Input
Amino acid sequence: MAPPPPPSPVRGRRRPRTVKIVVTGPFDAGKTTFIRTISEITVLSTEREVSDHDVHGHGRTTVAMDFGRITVGSDVALYLFGTPGQDRFEFMWDILAEGMLGFVLLVDASRPGSYLEGRRVRDHFEALADVPSIVVINKAAGRDPDEAVAETRRELEVPDDVPVLVADVRNRDDVKRALITFLRTVQARLRRAPEDANVGTA
Ligand SMILES: Nc1nc2c(ncn2[C@@H]2O[C@H](COP(=O)(O)OP(=O)(O)OP(=O)(O)O)[C@@H](O)[C@H]2O)c(=O)[nH]1
Ligand SMILES: [Mg+2]
Output
């Protein structure tokens, strides 16, 4: 009798494990750009024209969410959810945080008010779930990176085990580096508390 056919590569392929990461931060910090720079699918964004250009440089703002995806190896797909930046859409934060593996907090180094807002966003997400996070300083061109990191740590009172890094979120390598740092932080947390292994998977 003929041996059974080998398993079909398509049928045999495992679906990647999906995890949800929230990309958050103050108004105009670069959240949508971060996701657009790295996503392998066309980013689903809900943006509207901003009526007040004086307080917002780019004329468009996220009103509900951004959604993008990046696959890491063949095993894990990161689903990236960007939050809206304006206060009046803050009700979306809790919805988007549901089931998150962790969050990336962006701050805008070119705007001093970004620190105070960043701290409020961080406190909010920290209170929602005890999950890993990192802080990414965007728009820091011309700044000394070490000084920008020290200032951000101080202003946001970032704990020592939360990485803080400088990036230009329009640059794919920078965004990749940020996500790798985030995943390493998740790994470090799992080594300390392996029972959390399934927390936050989508
Ligand atoms: N100079 C500079 N501009 C940037 C950088 N990243 C993003 N921008 C610009 O900043 C503006 C805001 O970027 P977005 O990605 O829309 O910011 P956002 O955080 O999603 O904004 P909201 O949804 O309104 O909160 C856009 O015009 C970007 O082109 C950066 O690293 N440097
Ligand atoms: Mg946006």
